[in-house]
Task: structure prediction
Amino acid sequence: MMVYITALVTGAMFGAGLVVSGMTDPANIQGFLDVTGAWRPHLALVMMAAIAVALPFFQWVLPRLSKPVYGASFLAPLSTAIDQRLLLGAAIFGIGWGVSGLCPGPAIVGIAYLEPQIFGFLGAMLLGMQMADRLPLGSEKS
Amino acid sequence: MIEASIFGGLLIGLASVCLMLFQGRIAGISSIVYRAIFELKFESWALTFVIGLALGPLLVATLNGPAAPVFDLAWWQVALGGLLVGFGSRLGSGCTSGHGVCGISRGSARSVVATLTFMTTGVVTVFLMGMLL
Result:
């Protein structure tokens, strides 16, 4: 039971962070990417602040811990390869991010606003994930 | 908005720390959403996390938070954007959170490259849309 409560609280904390920082608004994302126009630098601040908290933990605290509070072990992505799959995936992701000003976190948070466009985006996103799974490259377990 | 950006970022970082500390997992939203929808029987907590995410605005609204975001995209942007974000995050094993925040914090070269790549194509996309539309 506690595993679900902590997951819920952690998710809410993450969601609140996206709302407070305005990152749920597509205009702020597209504004950040619009470096030759009316640039909005806030996304960089959000990422730097998040990294300022997470980096010391991942670098110096995590290596001293043996296992998570719930679960048998810490799971990190196994792959270290900078391959075609990673580059192509990230490049395509960035195009979609620029086109819509949305990525998975803000899109889920957006459900709370009951906006038709958010549901359309999420439907298309899940379809896109399924399409990637059906590529002959094979699916990679993350 | 500078203070709000920093405060929001701190919350996101703290949540990423908590998810690793409690669940032992990277806070990569694209992967968690994928598990919550398609692999729930393996990772039952993922759905609870996703529900928590969607509760974020309700929490902040009670604190007199910022105005609700405006969703006035064209529908082709919604459909194409969603499709490419889903496809690309699955193929590239991550999105802004997993690569951009957690991956960089872990010192993963893969995530640094992925983040620079999607930032670049995002900038080019917005530039081209500004020119053509």
